[in-house]
Amino acid sequence: MPPVALHAGIIGAGMGGLAAAIALRRGGVKVTILEAATELGEIGAGIQIFSNISKYLIRWDVDEIIGENLVQVDEVRTWGVKDEVVTRVDPKRVHKMTGFPHLIARRDHLHAGLTESARRHGVEIIVGARVQELKYAEKSATVTTTKGISYTFDLVVGCDGIKSTIRQHLFPEVKPRAPSKVAAYRGVLTYDEIKAKAPEAASILTNTMDMWTGPNGYIMTYPLSGGKELNVVTSFCKDYYVEKMEEVDIDEFRGYYKDYSPAIQSIIKLVNYTQRWPLLVMPPMDRWSNEARTVVLLGDAAHCMQNHMGQGAATAIEDGVFLGRVLSEVVRGTLTVPEAVSIYEQKRIPRAWTKQQVSLVSGELNMCSDPKDLLKRNASSLPEVQGLENGEAKSQFPPLPPEYRSWQMFDSPDSVPGIFYYDAEGDADNAVCEFLQARDRKAGRVDELTMVSEALRKKWWAVVDFNGVG
């Protein structure tokens, strides 16, 4: 049986769009990316790549492309307002538990790695192609750019971010909103500057990821660019809902953290932030596609979330991997495009909404303002730090009891195994099998003796004909 020809158009060459493009190509789909910008690139500072995503960077050789600019830290720590360590994680243990490493990169380095991998996989990337019009039929969809050029695809995937043009065409009434008064501030310093101007911080900020938590805010730092730079991202609760990017007075910003550790304040005095970023969340949606399922959303276009779990881009990459796997079954003749898109929606919509909720709760825990709750929170994580004395390690990382769960969820596979152990490819393949099995049972196409679904038998036996063997 020859493969089914399938051409997908991906709108947007961000992290999710590039990941989807790679995954779709690996599934046998022809892929064209239409990117509005005239040059490929990514804004922002650092990005964390946990085990649910690092596995794909390794499978796709993106880790080798990025090379020495990737970082793996020796320890992840959370500090309280009295300069005490309140949570402590060993990344080597997390790697052993999950099977894949916790990596860190600059966003532009990761984006460049994904772009190069996409090109190596045979993805066509067209820049300067801003989509302004979308039309769709029963078995295709057509987009037209501001230059008046039209492209028709079997499936259009809207990966065009929080201000998605594709979403506005499909669901004009759906808009992201600020569910809390938290805003973010981001920037990068060099370690040379830190050593020269903030030696008290340099002695602490070695090859570690650190978070200083306090009432109504926190500061996170971690190394970038092979240890040459330090990413500094902070959050703070304003007295109003921040709905758009704003200019910020630097003295006001620094005043948010005036009661924090002198060491981290020395870092805050070096940053020169001028912008306050909103942390918007997309409300849960019943579907991400049109009726014919020839257009579908992915990533921030469908489920932007707050950053307190470091899972925004990761969830978009998961979307792309999952979609690539189910569409590979269209190429093999097992599913139709509408069936594949339906499976994608049924599995990815609830997962994205769960991660949005986890991110919100993680932020609440880190910005805890009630003194009683703060004491209770910090006391609950003593098993992680019992090997520390006066802030210095007196033993190896202490063993954790099997029932232990950390409140610091962003780096804890014990607390959120559904994130850290997740495999989007395996989940997608299992979802396809469940779909075929249910469809056959409903139609009475199950062998009475073996109880094997006709479609599942065909799915696995078809490998022989599909590969041209025999």
Overview of this protein structure:
The protein is built from 18 helices and 20 strands. The chain is α/β, with parallel strands linked by helices. Among the domains are: about 220 residues, 3-Layer(bba) Sandwich (FAD/NAD(P)-binding domain); about 40 residues, no CATH class.
CATH first level of the domain at 7-69 and 102-177 and 282-362:
Alpha Beta
Beta-strand percent range: 15-25%
Question: In terms of structural class, how would the helical and strand content be classed?
Answer: alpha/beta
Distance between the termini: 12 Å
Task: Tell me the quaternary state.
Answer: single chain
Output the CATH topology of the domain at 7-69 and 102-177 and 282-362.
FAD/NAD(P)-binding domain
Transmembrane segments: 6-24
Domain FAD-binding: 9-354
Keywords: FAD, Flavoprotein, Membrane, Monooxygenase, Oxidoreductase, Transmembrane, Transmembrane helix
Family: Belongs to the paxM FAD-dependent monooxygenase family.
Summary tags:
about 475 residues, alpha/beta, FAD/NAD(P)-binding domain, 8-stranded mixed β-sheet, 5-stranded parallel β-sheet, 18 helices, about 40% helix, globular, FAD-dep_Monooxygenase_BioMet, FAD binding, FAD-binding domain-containing protein, monooxygenase activity, membrane
Gist of the model:
It comes from Cladophialophora immunda. The chain is built from 18 helices and 20 strands.
